[in-house]
Amino acid sequence: MSLNGKTVIVTGAASGIGLATAQRFAREGSRVALWDINEEAAQRAAAELVAGGAKAIASRVDVSKRAQVDAAVERFHAEFGPVQILVNNAGITDFRAFMDTTEEDWDRVMTINLKSMLVVTQAVLPDMLAAKWGRIINVSSSSAQTGSARMTAYAASKGGVIAFTKSLAQELASKGITVNNVPPGFVDTPMLRGEGVAGLGVGVEAVAARSPMGRAGRPENIAAACTFLASDDADYITGHTLSVNGGRYSN
What we know:
By secondary structure, the protein is α/β, with parallel strands linked by helices. It contains nine helices and six strands; from the N terminus they run βαβαβαβαβααβααα.
């Protein structure tokens, strides 16, 4: 997929979709930085990639904190050079009735899911502008496309990610940089089986059975979409929403 030797940052890479995406880029021969607030899990994942022959590093990063992001980018430059590909995947979910949502709940979701798009992308974009080449892939959510009860803050934040993607894509289209987003559907991840099951009030399998395909997606499904959008095969695609949701939403 023409990703051999590329330099990649994946945020929220310690588990779930982010981990699968980092693993896929590593298999394609890319040099990968795994960023996550869970440093122990990120370090463990990076070590496993290195043991398998890949080039990978891990950093503890709160993607909403500019100082932490800048420090991690500086380390990335020292290890791998300029950033060529960014996957903005880090995020949190929030299941609660709208009238139970506090301003603190709202701000927390917006800070991690949406403000991080500004902070992280601004930190790596100078490398891409200098090279006149870059790929930015943002992980949004099908909840922003369909709406989801008891997920108003989350869906609103991910709707912002979709709008962010479209707008930045237009601004950067003439500069050799593409910006796209992937909204996962119901994907079986540790986060879903933790907060998600409690918030949904039913098991993962019960929800998955109601989907058009009758099953949950796998993190690897999202990873495949991300690597495609980063590859030269997708060099004429920008501002696009590549839905990977098992038929939950058609656009």
